[in-house]
Design a protein that fits this description.
single chain; flat; 92 residues; mainly alpha
């Protein structure tokens, strides 16, 4: 019985955190749907990937620190560097 109550409390906290993060995302980045559409319709694949990676970095910046988030932040920073280097090399 007590385990069920704890599980319900945990579930409601997770849902609350998810809603809070979603509200922060929409509040801070109201242009996100347009940027996603821009990335999906971009003819240049490197540019499209750069836009999506930037959106991911902005989203991860809103999340509280933790092992997975910290790893994602590092990984996305490295991906951004690689994409910018690739983009600079491909320009005529």
């Amino acid at each position: 019985m007590i385990y069920r109550k704890r599980a319900c409390i945990r579930r409601s906290l997770v849902l609350h955190e998810s809603k809070r993060l979603y509200i922060r995302l929409i509040w801070n980045f109201p242009q996100s749907p347009e940027r996603i559409e821009e990335a999906l319709t971009e003819p240049d694949p490197i540019r499209a990937l750069t836009v999506m990676t930037d959106l991911q970095r902005e989203t991860v910046a809103l999340a509280p620190s933790g092992p997975n988030i910290d790893r994602a932040r590092r990984w996305l920073a490295e991906v951004t560097q690689v994409l910018r280097a690739t983009s600079a090399e491909s320009r005529p």
